Amino acid sequence: MTKKAWGVGPVAAALCALSTGTLSTGTLAEPIRTQPNEAVLASFDIVETTIVTRGDTAVFTTRVRGEAGRDKPDATGRFEGSSVYAYVWPTTLDSGAIGFDKAQGIVALAVTFHPDFDDAANGGVNRHVWHPHWVVLAKDGACGGGLKVIDIPKGARPKVPPTWPNVPLLIDSPDYPTALRGDAVQVEIPVSLITGIKGASFDGVTSGLKVNGNLHAPLLCVSDVFKVASSNLSLPGKVSPQK
Question: Of 174, 157, 178, 156, nearest to 165 (Cα)?
Fold first, then answer.
């Protein structure tokens, strides 16, 4: 797979600033539009990212230069060291808005594909399809991309959503309508399920993640950042009603 990482260090620093409330976010109600970049694989080359509300539904959409979802990680036959590809919407939402304890880290919606393991709620199977997750991220220098999905330490009993997939991570596996058609990835979520979504700020990212080969914390790292819609993770998007 040919790809270009967009400033992994600055992206990690920006996410760290977001988690501490020191990052200044933008106020654009329009989509985040991005120039195509031939150095990025077309299926991950973001050209537009939006989150809008349509009545009682929040609609997350990312458009790319190529066919959305065309490229997937190769299966390895093992959970350890396996890869995940993702279309991600980092937001200013609080982790309490999606069913975890408050102020745990950076909340992002991610549409993922990982052929080596299932992480659907209630023991369901999802390794064969692109599917949505809420994830809570934090900075970690042990990860190639400088970020991780936050681990749940052994013996800890944090608050988790009803669709938590029973893995030691701050990750949720809700069954939201998700579609990849043509150049677009889209997820629809009832507004009532996301406290604070109206007026939240957001950005768009395409990335690769990797499961730790030793299954130790950090268990799931961001290993590559393919592209950031704003280029600097300034979260210039603002959730607003669709015009």
Answer: 174
